[in-house]
Write a structure and sequence with these properties.
Strand content: 5-15%
Helix content: 40-55%
Low-confidence stretches: none
Amino acid sequence: MTVMEQRDAYRPTPPPAWQPRTDPAPLLPDARPYRVLGTEAAAKADSELLRRLYAQLVRGRRYNAQATALTKQGRLAVYPSSTGQEACQVAAALVLEERDWLFPSYRDTLAAVARGVDPVQALTLLRGDWHTGYDPYAHRVAPLCTPLATQLPHAVGLAHAARLKGDDVVALAMVGDGGTSEGDFHEAMNFAAVWQAPVVFLVQNNGFAISVPLAKQTAAPSLAHKAVGYGMPGRLVDGNDAAAVHEVLADAVAHARAGGGPTLVEAVTYRIDAHTNADDATRYRADGEVEAWRDHDPILLLERELTGRGLLDEDGIQAAREDAETLAADLRARMNQDPALDPMDLFAHVYAQPTTQLLEQETQLQAELDAEAAGPEGAVR
């Protein structure tokens, strides 16, 4: 059956091109980022959830610090820290059900760890050992994505396929503000809205695409406003307010799971550390700007709320810090062990059925390794 033959597919007198397909007003984000901490809404927040978020934030901050130190010790090739963005990372992981999928970017290692990925395995890519050091299917966490925004169409495809199969699954895709300038972002948003795929896009607007500030990337009122052009809701949230990020993402996930389609969430946050350990951030931003954001630290905001309401005391703070130190010590000890690598693993997990060319390359490498092991007498001449 062709499109022309389908019932109601062809209309001799289509509506005028200027007529909006939907009312844009409900899709528009709020004028200011949504907040919970420090407002009346905080009193309604689940106290157990707030304490859980706090513990994960403290662990995440220590994890970032330890991973950054490992780069200086030569144990990691590179590490894109999410210090200052931990509220986005933790909320994204905790808001999902076990059956849902998380699609992280290269900066979202902490989100993967908070989702249950082993901390060492989460760093394997950044160590240069494997393309992905963990089983994506076991954790429902896609591989950390280094190319900007290419994980977004993958998330849409998985979410759309799950809906076609009747699976009750939501995909949450994370991306930075720089990634919204990529074509993959446009394609993913457009497909998601047209298909009404159960996917949530979380844009962590940390102010810079490496050294390029947001003002040089877009003239839109906010990144959340971009959602309207695709026909999906846009939400603007304070990315350092863990309770607010969790609430907004929870609403978006529930909306997607109920068949309401995708949502674009822009979390306004700040990258405290440099882009990576190879970047000198002092060349494009002032120290005063960084210090101003330290006063809006996600851990400080949540700790202030919890202690002010009598939900956290010094013992609780110390317990969270000790738990974080245990995590760091274990990570440090295990990362200081040289991994046992097998060069033949280069050919594993490439294709379900290896190609002829891949088999030839595998045979060639094995011959070279055998000759090297045999010494000078066995060397290929």
